[in-house]
Amino acid sequence: MNSAFARCYGLAARTNTLCGALRAGQAMRFHVGLLKECRTMNTGIDRRRFISTAAAGTVIALKPSLVFGTQANSKITLGLIGCGGRGNWIADLFQETGKYQFVACADYFEDRAKASGSRLQVDAQRCYSGLSGYRRLLEQDLDAVVIETPPYFHPEQSMAAVDAGKHVFVAKPIAVDVPGCKTIAAAGRKATQRKLVFLVDFQTRANEFYQEAVRRVHAGDMGPLVLGEAHYPWEGGGRGGPPANNEECLRNWYYVLEISGDFIVEQSIHALDVATWIVDGDPVRAVGAGGRKLRPANSIYDHFAVNYWFPDDVLLSFTSIQSIPGVRDQITCRFFGAEGVIETDYFSGVIIRGRKSYKGGQFDYLYTTGTQANIETFYQSITAGQYANETVPASVRSNLTAIMGREAAYRGTEVTWQDLLQSEVRLTPDLTGLKS
Ligand SMILES: NC(=O)c1ccc[n+]([C@@H]2O[C@H](COP(=O)([O-])OP(=O)(O)OC[C@H]3O[C@@H](n4cnc5c(N)ncnc54)[C@H](O)[C@@H]3O)[C@@H](O)[C@H]2O)c1
User: Fold this and answer.
1) Is ligand 1 within 6 A of the CB of residue 409?
2) Of 34, 127, 375, 425, which one has the fewest beta carbons inside 10 Å?
C-alpha cells in the first residue's frame, strides 16, 4: 500500500468513519484538521483521475427533457442532510465536479448546519436544524439529496425524500434493523416508479476491477463456489461507550447500538457486501459469536466471528475486530471456487488466480475514487433518466446479511434468513428531550 495513501486512509478512516479519535471523544477541531490534511493529500491524484472523466468545471449540456426541476444547462441542485465528517467531505467531491450546486443543508445541530452552509455558500435561510430540519429542506426547490446522517435515520429520511420527489444519494449502511431495510427496499422501488434515482454509496461496487472480477465469477470462470472468507480488522474504532446524554448520542453515535447498528453493520458491511455480491445469493443461515473485551459493557461489540451458509452449501467465514494497536487495516474477501480463487482488498486490489485467471488491478484511494465514481453515476443516471436503481436491492441484501450476523452473535444461536425476514424488531434510540 502506498504510504501516503496508508496515512491518508488512516486519517480518513479515523475521521470519516466513526472513528477512534472522534468516538474516543477528542475535539471536533482535531477531526476537521485531519479531514483537511487528508483532502490536501488526496487532491493531486484523485482530481487528475477524476477530471479526465468528469469534465469538472465545464458547463453541462443537459437534455431539455430532464425530469429534475431546473433549466437545461444548469447544475443539479442538492440538499445535504447530515453535516458531519463525511457530509462535509463528500460535499466537496460533489462540488468539484462542477455539475452540482448545494442549495440547502440540514443537521440536527444548528452550528453544524450553518458551518456547512457557509462553506458551501448556501443561503443561511436554507440551513435547517433539529430532528425535523430535513423535512424543511425537502420542502425546498431542489433536485436531489445527499444523506450523510447516522444509519438509524436513513430509512425515514430516504423515504421522505422520495415522497418529496427528490433523487437520493445515501451513505451505507442503509439501516440498522430489518424493518429499516424493508423501508429502503420500498423507497428504492417507489423511486423507480416515480422516475427518481436512488443510489447507495458503496465504493467497491463502483470500481472497475471489482466489477469485472465479479462478472467473471458469475460467468463461471472459477467453477462452482466452495468456500469464502471475509475479514475486516481495523486499528481504529476506539474503545468508548454510549454517551449518557441523548443529544450527545447524536454526536458520538458509533457506540449507540440503536443508531449505528453495531460495527458489524456500520463498518464490516463493506466486507460482507463484497461477499454477497460474489455469491449473488441470500445466506440461508448463520451462527456466530463475538463480544466486548475492549469496550465497556454498555457499548457495541469489538469483535465478531460468524459462519454463513449460502445456497448449495457455499460457506463463508467472516471475522472482524477493531481498536487493536498495530493491526494492518484490511477489508478483504477471498472466495475459492472449484477452478480458482478471487482475492479482493479495499485497500490494494482485485485478482483471480486459477484456470481462467484475471490479472485485475491495483488501486489506491478507493475511499475517494469509489465515491467519485458513484457521484458521476448519480449524475449520469439523473441526466439520462436511468431509474433501475440497482444498488438498492444489493445493499438491502448485504445489510440484512450483516444484521443476521449480529443477531447470530448476540443470541448465540443459529439464525435463518427466513426467520430474519419476519423480524419486526425496531432498534429505537431514546430521542427524548431532543429539539424537533
Ligand atoms: N466509506 C464509507 O462509505 C463511509 C465512510 C464514513 C462514513 N460513512 C457513513 O456516512 C454516514 C455519516 O457518517 P459520519 O462519519 O459523517 O458521521 P458524523 O457523526 O461525522 O456526521 C453525522 C452528522 O449527522 C448529524 N445528525 C445526526 N442525527 C441527525 C438527524 N436526525 N438529522 C440531521 N442530522 C443528524 C450529526 O449531527 C452529524 O453532524 C454514516 O452512515 C456512515 O456509516 C460511510
Assistant:
1) no
2) 425
Residues 230-260: pLDDT tens digits? 999 999 999 999 999 999 999 999 999 999 9
- Can you tell me the distance from the alpha carbon of 188 to that of 169, in angstroms, rounded to the nearest whole number? 11
| pLDDT, tens digit, 9 for 90 and up, residues 348-376 | 999 999 999 999 999 989 999 999 999 99
Instruction: Please give the pLDDT value at position 21.
Output: 31
- The x, y and z cell numbers of residue 281, run together, are 445469493
- Centre of ligand 1 to C-alpha 68, Å, is 26
Nearest CA among 60, 67, 69 for reference residue 142: 69
Spell out the domain ranges in the chain.
1-436
Output the furthest CA–CA distance in the chain (Å, rounded). Answer: 62
User: Which residue's C-alpha comes closest to atom 21 of ligand 1?
Assistant: 84
Q: Are 80 and 106 in contact (CB under 8 A)?
A: yes
Domain spanning 1-436, CATH architecture: 2-Layer Sandwich (3.30)
Which pTM does this prediction carry? 0.88
Residue ranges of alpha helices (H) inside 97-207 are: 110-119, 133-138, 154-163, 178-193
